[in-house]
Amino acid sequence: VGVCKQEMLQKKNAVLVDGVILNGPIMDSKAGEKLVEEACKIIMEEVVQKADDVTEKVCEWQAPETLKQILDLEMRDTGECHQKILQLCRDVIKYSVKTNHPRFFNQLYAGIDYYSLVARFITEALNPSVYTYEVSPVFLLVEEAVIKKMIEFIGWEEGDGIFNPGGSVSNMYAMNLARYKFCPEIKEKGLSGLPRLVLFTSEECHYSMKKAASFLGIGTENVYFIKTDERGKMIPEELEKQVQRARKEGSAPFLVCATAGTTVLGAFDPLDKIADICEKHGLWLHVDASWGGSALISRKHRRLLHGIHRQVNLVHGADSVAWNPHKMLLAGIQCCALLVKDSSGLLKKCYSAEAAYLFQQDKFYDVSYDTGDKSIQCSRRPDAFKFWLMWKALGTMGLEERVNRALALARYLVEEIKKREGFQLLLEPEYANICFWYIPPSLRKMEDGPEFWQKLHQVAPIIKERMMKKGSMMLGYQPHRGKVNFFRQVVISPQVSREDMDFLLDEIQLLAKDL
Question: Hey, which family's this protein in (predicted)?
Fold first, then answer.
């Protein structure tokens, strides 16, 4: 390094400031380009080309301490050579879960969409931040176009929206927006002097509602959880009772959060009846359709969200909707929109801070395109772009086909479960969540009672451990509302076939044959 420094100082016009030579770049662009080229080849060979290969493992399980040693996580004073970096890339891919594998059923996202992947490559290379038109002209226009189209599928004539880093954040945005609408002075004066604010959501809601109430200072005790029926749907009559109870207590109800596609059971709350109650009591209705919103794309299944927009002659439908295209539609994590029926600029009024160094009002172009002040973030990723490019490539009909096929495969699996000894459904699904127990042969003749359920509770975790260590597939399990551990299978990826559904049931039987 010292020799190089001397050589640079001897060059004509060499400038040294605080011991740092300022002439020329310090990065080796050619070496960097070669690294990117070789890394992209590894990504193609080890990720993209193997995405639909069922002979590959879903995961290469290692215990945390072992994996720490394999990956050599220590960061040192001197950098590693390119070959070592490329080997690290291979290791990261090898030991990561292959969520694009046809037999990854573990979460509410799966599979690979090649158009979305290309879009992500582009945005990673360009490294944009979506707040002003001057630094992100293409991606701001894309986001505007995508939001407009999503609003159209909800059924609103107009509206507003913004893409956020996750459905949890969208739910928090909606909660804060509803509170701002209820008492706008809170933005400047804060919580002091306000009445006790109360919101309502179902027992089956996403846990982000509780977190949002805590984060926003509303308090988790002021979240009234409404009873659900046996299918996991909010009971409207119970909502009415709780609203009246809150009023009698002297509290100030301001928000109802309904769920369209609950996380575990895949339940859709009765939006029409809930909207009636919201209209009656003047409450903001937010619909968390992070998981179920993509059913709106399907003419066959959009009935699941009936009432989200209401008829023209009715005043109230949803005031806001959270919708995650990275789930059922495979737009790639993260791709999450909050959509708002208001078109008067409520989002901006609620969140703007009018930073003078970003949002100057005397710019040479139309500053209405500087939409970043609608966000609580400053830097923000262009998440709408991957959804836009995918939508352009597939068209609405292609997206609709994905939804219809996923739900048809779910239906197929349900019918197969009914045929097989040892498999038992919790309930008939209405979406892509199939919840079931596997009862091993040793328990099938056992009397139904506490001991049976205690033993059955232990079955799913053992099967899960075996499938993970074998790498054959990944399937989630959980206890839920008094029910012992059961599997939750979710169909999403277009790479999944009927054969994969059959394999899933066969593999569970194989892994549990000695239990």
Answer: Belongs to the group II decarboxylase family.
| Cα–Cα distance, 466 to 507 (Å, whole number) | 10
Sign of the CA dihedral with 409 first, then 338, 149, and 136 last: negative
Q: Please check whether residues 232 and 344 belong to one and the same domain.
A: yes
219: three-class secondary structure by DSSP: coil
Q: Is residue 352 part of a domain?
A: yes
pLDDT, one tens digit per residue, over 362-397 is: 999 999 999 999 999 999 999 999 999 999 999 999
In whole angstroms, give the CA distance from residue 168 to residue 61. 29
Please write the tens of the pLDDT for every residue from 115-145: 999 999 999 999 999 999 999 999 999 999 9
DSSP state letter for 5: H
Task: Note the maximum CA span of the chain.
Answer: 92
The total number of structural domains that make up the chain: 3
pTM over the 0.70 mark: yes
229 domain-assigned:
yes
Residues 210 and 319 in one domain: yes
Distances (CA, A) of 59 to 68, 104, 282, 346, 474: 16, 9, 50, 45, 8
Cα angle: 112, vertex 114, 118; to 5 degrees = 125
